[in-house]
Protein 1
Amino acid sequence: MYELKTKETDSSVIEFIENVESPKKREDAFKLLDIFTETTGYQAKMWGPSIIGFGSYHYKYATGHEGDAPLVGFSPRKAKISLYFAPGDSKREELLMDFGKHTTGKACVYINKIADIDVDVLKELINQSVKFLKETYPHQ
């Protein structure tokens, strides 16, 4: 059976951030930690070796595939900072128009640094993602 790689762990979020090589990315990661914690009200948890997640939800697809994932999160990767929001939410695209300099993947939004984005829009994206996932997967 398929085993999810990205699971909540007991690893230290602070230790993980302190080990980010780039001082600028490390500083941005601490700022993001504050923004996500304050906005969601959830304590940060490590998901897998490199994703900092907030809250969680259980999903189940029509295919029968199911698992748990953070409601929102981020990861200060070498190339860019990955921000994780709900995939499939049409309001995300709307909010991203005013977000600032970024690129997108299926579930990720990539930024170079916090200075490139509108932090108020980031907070809206976080709130919208949590709301969307709680409505889509209400049985927690």
Protein 2
Amino acid sequence: MLRKLYDWVMNLARSRHAPAALAAVSFAESSFFPVPPDVMLGPMVLANRDRAFVYAGICTVASVVGGLLGYAIGMFLEPVGQFILSLFGHPEGKAEFQHWFDQWGAWVILFKGMTPIPYKLVTITAGFAHFDLFMFVWLSAVTRGIRFFAVAGILKYFGPAMLEEFERRMGLYSVLLLALLVGGFVAIKVFL
């Protein structure tokens, strides 16, 4: 079953609809959707390494535009923003993140934008905090660009060897990936 899912993702990554799907996932992830765009970006770069930086650019632009929706949710639709934060394990997220923005300001966006922490937490709470919109867009473009272009570059240059290794030991790496995901969510709940 794992092999069928893997083949399906790789075929989707090669399809003509992949860039549009990547943009949609990147946009939605920055405001409300739980799945990060890396799950599409990685297979797309591995399927077509010559377009790696085009895909990273699509991710970056769509993520920043989606971040504007997250910002608007936080600024104008506070109950919706609170609901989204509570879905991601932060029912008191507004106060918590407001404190972070008060204390660290731009560093919150720069640091969290490059990590696997769901970016919607940053975008919505930046809206709650009424963080400067121009600065928010600029910092989002920088931090998301660094993240997506780094992923694309690593996969462009080292991806074939990594892909061969992954295909050889797919079961082991799938279990490790699942453990990292679960551990990440546990860490987010405990430390954030």
